[in-house]
Amino acid sequence: IGVLSSDTVPMSVGIVFGGDGLEAPLRTAVELGLATILLLSAGSKLVSWPSWRRALAGYRLRWLDSDAVAWLVPPAECLLALGLVLDGRPLAAVAVGVLFTSFAFVLSIAALRGSREDCACLGVLLPAQIGPLAVARAAGFSLVSLGSLALPVDNIAPGDRVAITLGLGTIVALLSLRLGVRQDGSVQAHRAE
Q1: What is the 3-state secondary structure (H, E, C) of the chain?
Q2: Above pLDDT 90, what percent of the chain?
C-alpha cells in the first residue's frame, strides 16, 4: 500500500482519503458563508425593525416578545459573525452552532404552539414561515457550523477573510434588491420590460 500524494492521486481521491485537497478552503467557505448569513440577517432585522418586532410577537412566546430579546439578537449575530470572520477558531463555530440550535429549539416550540407567522430568521431578505422548514434550516445551519470543526483550518489572513465576507454580503444584498425586498418584508420580483 503506497502513500497518497497529490502527485500520484487525483484531488477527488485525495480529499476522500485525507490527502491534499479542499478541506481547509471548505472550512473557510463554510465559516465565511455562515458569517455572511448572520451579518445580513442582523442588518435586515435592524433596518426593518417593525417587521422584526412583529415577527417576535408572532412566535407566541411571551418571553421572546420583549425589547430586550429584540435588541439582543442582532448584536449577537454580528459578534458571532465577526468571530467567524476574524478568528476562524473552534469557539466561534461552536457558538454559532449553539445559536442556530437555540433558534431551532425556539422555532420548534412556536410551531408546536400553532404559530405560522413569518419567523424573521433571516430578516426581510428571506421571509419564511414558522414551521418544519424553518426548524430544519436552523438545525442544518447548526450542523454545518459544528461539522466544519472536523475540517482543518485554512491560513487565510483576517483581512482577506473580511474582504471575502464583504464581497459575499454585497452579492447577497444586491440579489435581494433585485428581487425587490420591501421594508415590510414582502418580495416583488422585477419584470423585464
Answers
A1: CCCCCCCCCCHHHHHHCCCCCCHHHHHHHHHHHHHHHHHHHHHHHHHCHHHHHHHHHHCCCHHHCCHHHHHHHHHHHHHHHHHHHHCCCHHHHHHHHHHHHHHHHHHHHHHHCCCCCECCCCHHHCCCECCHHHHHHHHHHHHHHHHHHHCCCCCCCHHHHHHHHHHHHHHHHHHHHHHCECCCCCECCCCCC
A2: 33
